[in-house]
Amino acid sequence: MERTLFGISAWTRQMLAEELVGPGRTYVGAELPGGSLVGYAGIWFDGRDAQVMTVATDPGYQGRGIARRMLVTLLERARALGAESVLLEVRVDNAPAIHLYETLGFTQLGRRRGYYQPENVDAWTMQLLLPREVREVREVRPEQEAS
Ligand SMILES: CC(C)(COP(=O)(O)OP(=O)(O)OC[C@H]1O[C@@H](n2cnc3c(N)ncnc32)[C@H](O)[C@@H]1OP(=O)(O)O)[C@@H](O)C(=O)NCCC(=O)NCCS
Fold it and tell me: What job does this protein perform (predicted)?
């Protein structure tokens, strides 16, 4: 699936194996009732922000909401870990992925020229801020505010 989806940029079996057990990684997989893997996605939490490392859905199962479900699960995980934001890079010509990220609330931060090599394709960097939930609500009267 990795080679089919990412071509010459695909990670090798060994790179994938090392990535799965890397520090701060959380990976999820989408499997059919029989146990076949049809999607996988992962994040790296560095203690402050989370980075989307990869998102992939088997071509035969795309367009059914699998990537969205995997990402929603990972965003919940990032929030639970206390990440301030979630960051990612995406090829500027990857319309399905950009659409998916935008509908999840990601916005474009900047453009990295020639980020994808050897194809020499630019990347958008995108960010989703995860504001901390309000933990305490305290009444503040106008006279207290002024002092
Ligand atoms: C990007 C990718 C992960 C999406 O996976 P998916 O399981 O098909 O995504 P979903 O079914 O959850 O769809 C998410 C959104 O993408 C849109 N989408 C999916 N395939 C699309 C296509 N071929 N063209 C346009 N939009 C598409 C859907 O419309 C959907 O939006 P909606 O819910 O508003 O309709 C999948 O296309 C893929 O594996 N691509 C190759 C690897 C890749 O590019 N990964 C991202 C690297 S940054």
Answer: Acetylates the N-terminal alanine of ribosomal protein bS18.
